[in-house]
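ugh ok fine here u go
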Amino acid sequence: MFSRRLFEHGAKVPPEQKRLTGYRGAINEALAEEMARDSSIIVMGQDVGKAPPFGVTVGLLDKFGPERVLDTPISEIVMVGAAVGAAIGGMRPVVEMQFGDFLSCAIDQVVHQGAMLRYLTGGQVKVPMIIRLPCGGGQGTGSHHAQSMYSWFVHSPGLRVVLPSTAADAKGLMKTALRQNNPVLFFEEKILYRTRWEVPADYSSPDFTIPFGKAEIKRPGKDVTVVATMAMVHYAIEAARHLEDGISVEVIDPRTLAPLDMKTILASVKKTGRLVVVDEAYLSCGIQGEIIAAACEKAFRDLKAPPVRLGNPGVPVPFAPTMEEAVLPNVAKIEQAIRQTLL
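structure:
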């Protein structure tokens, strides 16, 4: 079974019991609420006005007008360069990349300008911009439209790297991003856009925010710790359900990779003694290895088995769905990795 089918109908929560909100709609709500609160926030990108490609910015042009919702040329360098300049000048720009892969076209503007200027000026210059980055596989969109490139940018000092896995996280983290003064890369898993998730009672509060650097235990357990990101969080939870007759799995969602909440992860590893890290990105120099390295440095004597990491083994994401499924982590692979730590 293709793992992506987990998301065809959204969250498996009875609607009469829980309040559900869409992942895509949650980001839209956060943008609309913060734009109404702060006139310095602008949205810019290709077709973000009347025909947003994934529908996240729908309605913003009607609410806030063309001076605050700007369609741009097809040039990532122009978009990010303009955003850096606008941020320096006192605005809070939100840039949408149609696909997160294209951020590599503007890496100079992101890494050498946006990320460094606050350091290079001793804090005199701030660059409070957000770049929204649809990412991830599972939809057969091919190698140029399905990568998860956040590990590249965790390596770059000055950037905040955000990975929401649910509607509540998407809204709370976006609102936090819009209220702080650092450049933020806000990755959004495309396969989650049409899903709906339970949200907390205070979700509609104007000040509903989620702090950066605070992981969440999505499922408590005592035998194995699984750290997972975005769609992989839900794959890990599904794998945990399959194993719950004999294995108690704790699933942790870091939610932000820069800053990274190793305190929560280490506390779990010291409790369970076993660690699996699953992420859709490439394994080589990936966030999976970084988390495992930190766990080995800080909790080596607590480990009862070698940690296991899952991710893309290092090939361009295939176009064919069957090949894509073979390359990317899925529920069955996570189950196998969990069992491996118990041998």
